[in-house]
Every structure is written in structure tokens, then in C-alpha cells.
Amino acid sequence: MSAQPMLERHARMQVALALIVRRARLSIVHWETRVARDALRALYREVHGEPAPSGQLPTAGGAAITTRHCQLCASVFVMLYRHLQLASSGAGGQDRRSRSIVAMIQAHDLAQRVLGAENSLEITLCWMLARDLRMGRARLRSCPQCQIHYLVTEQGRFDQGCPLCARYRSLGLSCLKVG
Q1: How many CB atoms lie within 10 A of CB 29?
Q2: Residues 38-64, mean pLDDT to the nearest whole number
Q3: How far is CA 108 from CA 9, 46, 76, 86, 117, in A?
Q4: Distance CA 41, CA 26 (A)
Q5: Rounded average pLDDT over 129-144
Q6: Three-state secondary structure of 120-170
Q7: Separation of alpha carbons 70 and 122, rounded Å
Q8: What's the pTM value of the predicted model, to 2 decimals?
Q9: Average pLDDT for residues 116-125, to the nearest whole number?
Q10: How high is the mean pLDDT of the chain?
């Protein structure tokens, strides 16, 4: 047995554990790692002391963004994800798919630190947004007023304007103007 397949299995298991610790849905963990579902269920139970949640994922991450606040938090996550994904694109030793899931986990963790745990998105929604971004079903748009980039999705409810400017207006403040 060569060391390469063993190292690949170890790397897949590390990603699986990282996702499970963050309570990712097992269908996502299996899709990203190809680790057997039985092993993932056992690992989830060992880590969390309870069975993994079941049920279907929404077809699009944008459908799960139901408030302007959530859109703003999702925009922060997506900006971090894109930055980390671009930064890792020149990294050797990992294929594109591996770099993408690692960038997604790092962006989730960084967004949680920046936004605070109470405002952070669940890892499953982060995965769906990253997937939608890669598939072209989501993108970042630049606000002409404040110049920030915000998330726009195919099935989103709040794609008509900047969530930060909307937040300012809801507080009775004028939008930020850059320049």
C-alpha cells in the first residue's frame, strides 16, 4: 500500500471532522469527502452525542436568506470565501475541490469571529452559498452609494439593493457615500 492513498484518506477524514464539528449536514460531508455515510454518522454521534439531523437541503442557498441582516452576514461570508479561495488558488498539493472546501471552512470561521457567533451563518448555509457562487447562481454586486460588495442570488428576496444602505435607512440615517 502506497502512502499517497493513505494520506488522501487522512486528509478527507480531517475535512469530514472539521465539517462535523461545525454541524454540517452529513450529505454535504459525504459529498465533499466521499467518506462512507455509516462512518460519518458514527463520527457525528461521537462528536456531538446525538444523531445527525436529517432532511433535504434547500435547492438554493439564496432561498434561505430571509432578512436584510442575513443578506449582510452572507455577503461578509461570500467576500471572505472568495478572497480565501483566490489566495489558495496558487497553493500546490491540493486539487481545486479540496481548496474550495478548505476555503469555505476558513471563511465560515473567520466570518464567525468578525460577525460574532450570534450573527454567523450555519455551516450548511455557507456551503450552499459557496456552491451557488461557484455555479453562477449567486454573485457579488457593488453598491453605487457605499461601494461595498453585497450578495445577490437567483432566489433571493433582497437583491434589489445594498443591505448596508438598507440598514442605515431603517435606522433613519443616510447611506454611506464613498468618494
Answers
A1: 28
A2: 87
A3: 24, 23, 10, 16, 11
A4: 7
A5: 90
A6: CCCHHHHHHHHHHHHHCCEEEEECCCCCCEEEEECCCCCCCCCHHHHHHHH
A7: 11
A8: 0.85
A9: 89
A10: 86
Q: C-alpha 172: how far from its chain's center?
A: 31
Phi, psi dihedral angles at 114 (to 5 degrees): -70, -45
Residues 6+ apart with CB under 8 A from 152: 138, 139, 140, 141, 159
DSSP letters, 2-18, are -HHHHHHHHHHHHHHHH
Give CA–CA dist 146/144, Å, rounded: 6
The tens digit of pLDDT for each residue in 14-37 reads: 999 999 999 999 999 999 999 999
Q: Evaluate the CA torsion angle 108, 114, 117, 121 in order and state its sign.
A: negative
